[in-house]
Design brief:
The chain contains nine helices and no strands. The chain is mainly α.
């Protein structure tokens, strides 16, 4: 087959897959996880059920693929935030705040329980922990980080503390949580 034909087929497959993911996420957000059917996804996407089943075996598989894409998007965003900030301290603060706001986004608990399992989540958590650990190591070189706790342990502290942003009522509260978390990283000056 000519390259143009292959490229066109691949582009079409990506578009159909993206449409399936977006449609399913929208339907689940509106109706709840248990209410959405493969038939409804196919209809709302504008494809046949047989076509849908060529891409995904069930709603859970669609949602897991959607979640993997969301997680990748969040990690890419955190990398961009890191790269746009100034010195080591500013990079750390910007990434911690961006992570806290990601956690602050509201998620259906039933859906979150389904999606926050699996290898892609473990890989993402390792990547995120490594990113925070590297930022903390950079801040440690400036003397602006406590020395009584290893950067790896501080990374765990930051991630667990900022996960609490998911239950906060406002963006102002999220910013205060970030400030408190950062205060816990500073060296003891007493």
């Amino acid at each position: 087959m000519p390259k143009l034909w292959n490229d066109t087929i691949e582009a079409h497959r990506r578009e159909v897959r993206d449409a399936i993911l977006a449609t399913t996420a929208t339907l689940v957000a509106a109706q709840g996880l248990q209410a959405v059917t493969m038939s409804e996804v196919a209809e709302k996407t504008g494809i046949g059920r047989a076509t849908l089943y060529k891409y995904f075996p069930d709603i859970q598989a669609i949602l897991l693929a959607w979640h993997e894409r969301q997680v990748k998007s969040h990690l890419d965003h955190l990398g961009q935030v890191r790269d746009q900030a100034g010195d080591a301290g500013a990079r750390l603060e910007a990434v911690l705040e961006a992570y806290a706001f990601i956690c602050h986004e509201r998620h259906d608990t039933e859906l979150a329980a389904l999606l926050h399992q699996g290898e892609h989540v473990t890989h993402a958590q390792q990547h995120l922990s490594g990113l925070i650990r590297e930022l903390l190591t950079d801040v440690a070189k400036t003397g602006e980080l406590r020395t009584d706790v290893a950067p790896a342990e501080l990374a765990t502290y930051c991630l667990h503390a900022l996960t609490a942003a998911g239950s906060l009522p406002s963006k102002a509260a999220v910013r205060r949580l970030v400030a408190v978390t950062l205060a816990g990283l500073r060296p003891d000056t007493s």
